[in-house]
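Hi R.,

Here's the chain you asked about this morning:
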Amino acid sequence: MESIDIKSEILDSDSSPSRALTRNPPSSRRQPLHPKVPAELESILAFCVMCIYEYTQRRNLSKMHSRAGQALVLAMDKSLHSQGDSEDDFAEAKRRAWWICVNINRLSKSFGNA
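And here is the predicted structure, written out as C-alpha cells:
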C-alpha cells in the first residue's frame, strides 16, 4: 500500500499546493513491469490484485470493497472510462485495466450482498 501511495503522491503538495497542481506529474524513473502496460496503470492493477487477495486469502469483504473502489477511482482519474476507440500504443492495456476495475467492483458489491 505504501508503494502505491508514494507512486501516486503529488510532489510539492505539502509545501506548495498551488504549484503542485499546475505542474505535470513526474515521469516514472523505472521501466514498466510489462512492455505493453504503461507504468501509470500499475497502481490501478495493483489495487485490483489486492482486492482479490483480500477476498481469497483474508476473507475481508470490507477491504476488498475498499481496494476495488480505490482502483476504480484511479482508473477514472486516468480517464480510462472515456478512451473510446483510441488506438495508441497502450490502448488495449487501458481498455483491459478499465474493464477489470468495473468487474472487480461488481464482484465486490455482489460478495458484500451475499
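One quick note: The radius of gyration is 15 Å.

Cheers,
M.
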